[in-house]
Amino acid sequence: MSEALTQLETDIRVDLARIAHPGAAWLEAKTGPDGKPALDVLIVGAGQSGIAIGFGLLRSRVSNILLIDKAEEGKEGPWLTYARMPTLRSPKDYTGPDLDIPSLTYQSWHEARFGKESWQALDLIPRAHWAAYLLWLRRTIALPVRNGCELLEIAPASDGLLAARVKRAGEVETLYARKIVLATGQEGMGGWMIPEQLAHLPASSVATVADDIDFESLRGKRVAVIGAGASAFDNAATALEAGAAEVHLLCRRAQIQVIQPYRWLTFRGFLRHLSDLDDTWRWRFMRKILEMREGFPQPTYDRCARHANFTLHEGAPVEAARKTGEAIELETPRGAITADFVICGTGIDMNFAGRGELAKCAGNIATWADRYQPPEDERNERLGRFPYLADDYAFTELVPGKTPWISDIHLFAIASTMSFGPSGSSINAMTTAVPKLVHGLTRGLFRADIARHWASLSAYDAPQAVVKRPARKMGGSL
C-alpha cells in the first residue's frame, strides 16, 4: 500500500470519528427461533449499492447487519464480469457510495493511488479501477460481508422476523433478520430478456448481454446484436475486437437514440423528490425516460464504427427468426440478416415468480399496473409490471393481510425505478437515494420498538448534576 493511501485511510478514520453523532447504540437484537441474536438488517448484494446502504446504516448506529453476495470477493456487480466497456459512462466527478464524505470519494482514492496529475488528466473512470475502489471502500469502513453466499428463499418467522435461507460452500443455513434489503442491481426482480421471436432458438446460438460469452469463439463468425443501447454497443465492440467477421447491430427505432436522459435528471430536485410526487407524475416522468432508453457516449459508438465490418441497421426490429443449418436468419422490415450467433441487449423484464427467493410472496407483490391506470396514450405493459413500492422502498401487498411480512423486505435495485427514479442501479442517485432508504429502515426499526423506548424513557433517572444544598442555621434564641 502506498504511503498516500495509508495516510488517506488515517484521515478517513479521523473524519468518521468527528461526525460520529450520536455515538450511542439504540437497538437491541431480537432473539431468533434458533436462540441466536437476529440481524437488524440483512443486505443481499455487496456491490456498490449494498456497500452504500451498509455504510449509511453504520453511520445511523445500526451495526448489527450483514451483507451477503453470491459472487466471490471483488467480483460483486458487473464490473469484472459482464460489463464490457473500458470505462464507466458517468462523469468522473459524480459521487456515490461515499455518501458525501470527501475522503471516501473515488477522487480521493484515485489521487492517493495514482497522483493528482493522473486525476486531472483522467477522462472517465476505468471500470477495473472502480471495482478496486469499491473493494477498498468496503474494507476501509469495515463492512461485515459474507461472499459466496446465495439467497435461496425469504419466509416469515416468529416474532416479526424474516427467515432468509442461504447457501454457502454447499451448506444451507437460515439467517434471521428484522429487515431484508435486496440490493441486487440489474436482475433484482426479473431477468434479461430474449425477444419472443428468438426464444425457440438453441441456447448455444443466443445469449443476453449479461451472459458469460466466449467472445474468442466468435472469431471469424457473423454476429447480430439486438438492441441499440450502451450495453448492446459494448457487446458489439467486444465481438469486433475479438475478430468477428461481421457484426450487425439491429435498432428497432427509425433513428437511433443518442440523447441520454440520465444526464438531464441528475439534479437534486429530481433525484430526491420524484418519489414524493403523485403516481400520475411519477409514471409520466419515468415512462418518458425509460421509453427513451439509456443513450450511449461518443466513444462507445466510435469503438464499433472504426471497424469496416460493423453495420448499424435502423428501423430493423426482429419480426421472426429461424435456424437454417448452422446459421440463424433474422427477418426485419429492412430485409433478412444471417448470423452465426445472436446477442440480445433488449433489457430486463419483471418476473417476480421467476425469482426463487420470492416464491412465498411473488403472487402478492403489488405492481404499478395494480395501483395506477395511466391514460390510454401513456400505457406501457412492461413498465406496469414494475413493483409498486412504499415510501421506504418496501414491497406492498396486492391483497392486504395475505403476506404482511413483505413490508419488511425493501428493494433497492433497477426495479425500484418506477417508484423512485434512478436509485438502486445508478451512481448518480446514491447520495440522495441511499439516505432515503436508510431513513425508512431506521424509521421502521424505531416504530417496531416504540413500547421498549417508552418504557426506557419512563425508567430513565440518570441525573445530570448533583445539587448541594447548604444546611440551614436555626435562628432566634430560646
TrEMBL record:
Residues 43-186 form the FAD-dependent urate hydroxylase HpyO/Asp monooxygenase CreE-like FAD/NAD(P)-binding domain. Keywords: Oxidoreductase. GO terms for molecular function: flavin adenine dinucleotide binding; monooxygenase activity. It comes from Bradyrhizobium vignae. SUPFAM superfamilies: FAD/NAD(P)-binding domain (SSF51905). The keyword Nucleotide-binding does not apply. This is Oxidoreductase. It holds the Pfam family NAD_binding_9.
